[in-house]
Specification:
This protein has about 270 residues and is mostly helical. Among the domains are: about 70 residues; about 90 residues, no CATH class. About 60% of the residues lie in helices and about 5% in strands. A two-stranded antiparallel ribbon has the order 1-2. α3 runs antiparallel to α5. The longest helix is centred in the first third of the chain and has 53 residues.
Length: about 270
């Protein structure tokens, strides 16, 4: 009887020991979204262990990053020194100091800025006299800079060439409000104000002939009489002005009063025939 009890106790002890060992071998499953205050002791231990491992990994990465940063900083310093030495060599070739080069760089930058401002203007605005004066002044300033030895430095050479090209492209001629036309003969050209106004290169509209008459009244006494070789100023194409309309009406009243035709009559080379 005592033996049986002892044997049973021994079996129970073995089973308990085995159960505890098995429990210790099983990893604790931890929900990463579970709040800290709801963790069991084993889960809290696991989370603390994970945190420590993550912290150690970040510390290792930080240390490696610091070492890389230190190495790259040293390389950058070496490259900067080499670049400075190279610049000094270039500056010596053009007999200039760093201060001279810095001043030239600033001056060129200001000039480039002025060129950009002018390039943004419309053609009509750019054609104004004051703007064209600015263009010429910028070109003169750039030409003076090009004579300096500093302009030969690689940093500036291509920029100066590009700026000179931009300045050349800023020159505009103000559009003339009038053009000129030399009268031919009636025999060859059928010249009269009506036909001249109808020409494609003039107005392409015969009814605008009063514009030519009014603009040239000092030499056209009678719009029916024009002469070969006369040079007329041709105003820009536009609707007839009030002055031109009045002149035309007066012309037709005079024609009706004289019982003549209702359209301008060309006189061949200024002679009735």
């Amino acid at each position: 009887m005592k033996f049986q009890l002892y044997f049973r106790s021994l079996i129970v002890a073995v089973l308990l020991t085995s159960s505890v060992a098995h429990a210790q071998q099983q990893p604790v499953a931890l929900d990463p979204n579970k709040p800290d205050e709801q963790l069991t002791k084993d889960e809290a231990d696991v989370r603390i262990k994970q945190f420590r491992e993550a912290t150690a990994g970040l510390e290792t990465q930080f240390k490696q990053g610091e070492e890389k940063f230190t190495t790259l900083t040293k390389k950058l310093a070496a490259l900067q020194k080499a670049a400075a030495d190279c610049d000094s060599s270039f500056y010596a070739l053009v007999n200039a100091s760093k201060a001279d080069v810095d001043a030239f760089r600033q001056k060129l930058g200001v000039l480039e800025g002025k060129v950009r401002e002018l390039k943004a203007l419309s053609d009509d605005a750019l054609a104004e006299k004051d703007k064209q004066d600015q263009v010429r002044a910028l070109e003169n300033e750039l030409n003076a800079m090009r004579k300096e030895k500093i302009a030969l430095l690689p940093e500036f050479f291509n920029r100066i060439i590009a700026t000179a090209k931009d300045i050349k492209g800023l020159y505009r001629e103000k559009k003339k409000n009038t053009s000129s036309y030399t009268v031919g003969t009636w025999a060859e050209n059928r010249e009269c104000l009506w036909n001249i106004s109808a020409r494609n290169e003039i107005y392409d509209d015969a009814f605008l002939w009063p514009k030519i008459w009014v603009a040239n009244k000092s030499i056209i006494r009678n719009p029916d009489i024009i002469y070969p070789g006369q040079e007329f100023q041709i105003p820009a194409k536009a609707d007839k002005t009030s002055e031109e309309v009045k002149a035309e009406r007066k012309y037709w009243r005079t024609k009706r009063g004289a019982a003549t035709s209702t359209s301008p009559q060309p006189l061949k080379t200024g002679v009735n025939n």
